[in-house]
Amino acid sequence: MEELFETAVRKKFRYETTKGLITTEDLWDMPLLSKNSFNLDILAVSLSNQLEEVKSFVTSRSKTDSETKAKLDIVVHVIDTKLKDAQNKEQAAVQSEKKQRILSILKDKQDDTLKGMSEADLRKELESLN
């Protein structure tokens, strides 16, 4: 994949979007989906459609076809990476929420333990903290 990105940078790939031409670096700033037509999904479909327009892989393959394929591969990689990042972020949020719940329950249990102690034991515990 690294070779592909090097090719994109060296050949200065530009991607046709509804907002004009964008660079390979700009792909990372595009949303996966959006209400307007400026998103990675629509760009990938457009590139895929361009490849499907090829009538023959023997007589009409051109440099443009391989460049379009490379562009599609890059866009798909960006999409896959962004999806994985979103999934990881969601998992981290779930784990963080669970951790907070566990800490809250532990605090409640510690409070219950302290409440169950006698006054004399509480005074000893308090003195040991000074």
Write the layout of secondary structure elements.
Blueprint: H1 2-10, E1 14-17, E2 20-23, H2 40-52, H3 63-115, H4 119-128
Antiparallel strand pairs: 1-2
Helix pairs in contact: 2-3
Structure write-up:
The structure is a single chain. The protein has a domain at 2-91. The chain contains four helices and two strands. The protein has helices at residues 2-10, 40-52, 63-115, 119-128; strands at 14-17, 20-23. Strands 1-2 form a two-stranded antiparallel sheet. Helix 2 runs antiparallel to helix 3 (63-115). The longest helix is centred in the last third of the chain and has 53 residues, at 63-115. The model has no long low-confidence stretch (mean pLDDT 90).
